[in-house]
Amino acid sequence: MIPTKRALAGLALSLGALWGLGGCATLMPKYVKPGLPVADNWPSGPAYKATAGHSGPAVADIRWQEFFADPRLRQLISLALDNNRDLRMAAINIEKSRALYQIQRSDLLPKVDASAAGNIQRVPADFESSHQPATIQQDTVGVGISSYELDFFGRVRSLKAQALDQYLATVEARRAAQLSLVSQVAYAYLNLAADRERLRLAQETLSNQQAAFKLIASRCQAGIASDLDLEQAQTSVDAARLDIARYTTLTAQDENALNLVAGTKVPAELLPASLAEALTALKELSPGLPSEVLLRRPDILQAEELLKGANANIGAARAAFFPRITLVSAAGLGSTNLSGLFSSDSFAWSFAPKLSLPIFDAGANRAGLEVSEADKKLAVAQYEKAIQTAFREVADTLAQRGTIDEQLAAQQSLAEASAKSYQLSQARYGKGVDSYLSVLVSQRALYAAQQNLINVRLARLLNLTTLYQVLGGGSV
Known about the structure:
Low-confidence stretches: 1-5, 7-22
Number of domains: 2
Oligomer: single chain
């Protein structure tokens, strides 16, 4: 811009006046948060007795570094937060939404452009009154406002509010993705630990059964044991071999799943050896109240931001029924020759307001308003459904939590009793009191009890992890 100071001052005053004229209220309906479409308290009954009377900090305030005590698991989660591609896409969506919001927000201010132009043309003699050909030169420099809408009825402001809500929704979506990723890493880590422990149990069982098979084979050669005893011992060996092959496959698949959620190859030193090491790796949690917990979940906050955006969009649809005033202006210098471009009398300006008043649009504006109102109703239903789904997820998790300790105690007792039964059956068989069938039955019962004990321990740890997620655990 090279115009005079007077021109600059006049343009600044004009911009200030336009800004003041455009700063009117919007036609957005007042946002009212829908009521909680679930019960005020969590379900009660025999399945929930373990949750009664607990108190403590809100789960949303507990950082995952505090909840997961296992140092290897914490390192794995940090690795996943740095490398997981789903989380990267969520972060990119935030950047995109932020840019879109900035674009929409910029419409509230006039766009001031600088320009410079030169034009030389030869005019034929027939076009000139002197009947002589002429060469005409025009040079201009200036600044101007290009197509600025005076936002009297808040259309631009409503669109800006909608873009902001969309951006905030992507922020909450990333938090939800991060919380989900933290849980997925824990799930994969615990499943790998459980399958490694199952594999180790199957290997120990195979070793014991092979020793028993050799003993029975020698007894069979001595005529002390029957061929039936030998074949029954062979079935135990083969069953253990089958489980070893199966759990070897599962542990490899578990490692692949862990590498996927981590977004990179997980170092061997971060892999769990067995589930027993992770039994105290998680922190106990308090469920709190639905109104305090559910409304802080990132996915529900995301649904509410989308609802706010739909509400703001109604304001833009309503404003479409009213006139739109668009301004185009310019101020600068002009001359027929370059040397006179900066002379005192070369100042030029233009001002071109435009009024657009909808008269007949074949119902397009009415339909647009109906669409925006329907979108809001849909967003309300989605928001309420998100809360109801969250309530059900927490209730289901609490139902399992209320009985999982009893299951664990009962399964532990069953495993101990099965071990004693197996020892007694071996002693009775060794003294010739019982057949080898009783040993086989008690051995299978012990093996099943030990495998189920691993399952229950895993279920308890997974339940705590799920509870942390569905209660909206802090993801920062």
